[in-house]
Specification:
The chain is of the alpha/beta class. The chain folds into two domains: 49-181 and 382-402, 2-Layer Sandwich (Nucleotidyltransferase, domain 5); 188-378, Nucleotidyltransferase, domain 5, CATH 3.30.420.150. It has helices at 49-55, 116-119, 124-143, 155-159, 163-174, 183-194, 242-249, 256-285, 297-307, 314-317, 324-336, 339-343, 349-353, 356-369, 382-413, and strands spanning 62-63, 69-70, 77-83, 87-96, 99-109, 146-153, 178-180, 205-210, 215-220, 232-238, 291-295, 321-323, 374-378. The termini are far apart.
Length: 414
């Protein structure tokens, strides 16, 4: 199959990801060229004082004793940490004009929400795995000259009865102050982080994020010129992600008939939870030019299979436009494979083999309620949204302080 031009093809290539430890990446986040869809296209305290300082955002600027602006020093960085139900991800970047360049990144499967759907609590093993990953993040925050940072936790910590206790333990042991954000804030940050990859068009668009413990669906207006953030018209969060859905339906996959029935039950549960939202957006879905953009491990994994990549390549996947029927076909095939067959496929492996089927069920349910002909794929989301929020707030602070300086200068001249 022929692949599409990668959106970051002119950027300097970063190190290839591999293993579980996360790797440094170096690429610019700018609007991706929209590839033509070809006929046969591819689918307490921290261990170091500075870690605690990085965990809590510092004021963007200060006024010194005589009221002059002290701007940020060259080379200072921003950091965004997203602790989800399945993954722990960190991104550290420096501003580059109105965009940014990533200087360090980390991602690890921690399975924080494993067993949460049945127990209502974060397990001891899950918390230990997560703390080990967060310790690495704290060390990276220490080493980098981080000016502002924000760390967020999502569905697992929202739902767990011991979620708040775990957040406090993280603060004591790593110095990282996690903010448990609402589902609405999670949806807003995802849109802010990936909307730039929306396919050009005049009709309404749906942006979705399939997480480990929840899925967010966001209906946005037709985007304006340039990189303007589209206005959110409606949104919905449901408590079905790849971990929560897998744990609820069960992991037994003995025999093809059992796998087929299991997938059907996943589809039923998710579709039922989407019903109220589907009814609200039905008129929008009938527009001739609807668009769809997904950000999650599910869509990037399926896009990798569509491209027949031997290993994951972000530059090939991020910004790709894939025919929706092709994603349905891949989902159907994965749903009847054995766990061993799935784990043997490139870009899935052992970590995703037991969860990707739930992701496929959620994706197909989304395609049912929003029947776009094509699906945009984004390997970016909440972390990028956080970074853009921090940088935008910094620019607003700079403008306000400059205005204040000008007012003071004018009064002094009088």
């Amino acid at each position: 199959m022929a692949d599409s031009l990668p959106p970051d093809r002119n950027a300097r290539a970063g190190k290839k990801r591999g293993g579980r430890s996360g790797k440094v990446a170096d690429f610019r986040y700018k609007r991706a060229p929209q590839p033509d869809l070809r006929k046969n296209g591819r689918d307490g305290r921290a261990k170091g004082a500075s870690a605690a300082a990085c965990a809590h955002p510092r004021p963007a600027h200060d006024l010194d004793a005589i009221g002059t602006l002290r701007p940020g020093h060259a080379g200072e960085a921003y950091a965004a940490l997203d602790l989800g139900t399945n993954n722990c991800r960190l991104l550290i970047a420096r501003p580059s004009g109105r965009d940014f360049t990533v200087i360090d990144a980390f991602s690890r499967v921690v399975k924080l929400g494993e067993g949460l759907a049945t127990s209502g609590r974060l397990s001891d093993k899950a918390m230990e795995r997560t703390l080990a990953a967060l310790a690495i993040c704290a060390e990276k925050l220490q080493r980098r000259n981080v000016r502002l940072a924000r760390s967020v936790a999502t569905e697992a910590c929202r739902r767990a009865s011991n979620g708040a206790d775990f957040i406090e333990r993280v603060r004591r042991e790593t110095g990282i102050a996690l903010d448990i954000i609402s589902a609405e804030e999670e949806a807003r940050l995802a849109v802010l982080g990936c909307h730039i990859l929306l396919e050009a068009g005049e009709g309404p668009a749906m942006i979705f994020d399939i997480g480990g413990g929840s899925t967010e669906l966001v209906l946005v207006e037709a985007a304006g010129e340039g990189s303007r953030v589209p206005r959110i018209l409606d949104w919905q969060s449901v408590p079905w992600g790849v971990v929560s859905l897998t744990d609820t339906v069960g992991r037994s996959e003995e025999g093809e008939a059992a796998r087929t029935a299991r997938y059907a039950e996943m589809r039923r549960l998710v579709s039922d939870s989407f019903d109220p939202f589907a009814a609200r957006v039905a008129d929008h879905a009938r527009h001739a030019d609807i668009r769809l953009l997904g950000t999650s491990g599910t869509v990037t994994t399926l896009a990798s299979l569509y491209l027949e990549l031997p290993s994951y390549d972000r530059k090939a996947v991020d910004g790709l436009i894939v025919p929706a029927p092709a994603m349905r076909d891949i989902s159907a095939r994965l749903s009847v494979m054995t766990p061993y067959e799935r784990s043997s496929l490139p870009c899935i492996g052992q970590d995703r083999a037991d969860l990707v089927v739930a992701g496929c069920a959620i994706l197909e349910s989304i395609l049912d309620l929003w029947p776009a002909r094509r699906l945009g794929v984004a390997d970016r989301g909440i972390r990028e949204g956080i970074l853009r929020s921090l940088m935008a707030a910094e620019r607003r602070s700079e403008r306000s302080l400059r205005a204040l300086q000008q007012q003071r200068s004018g009064r002094a001249a009088q």
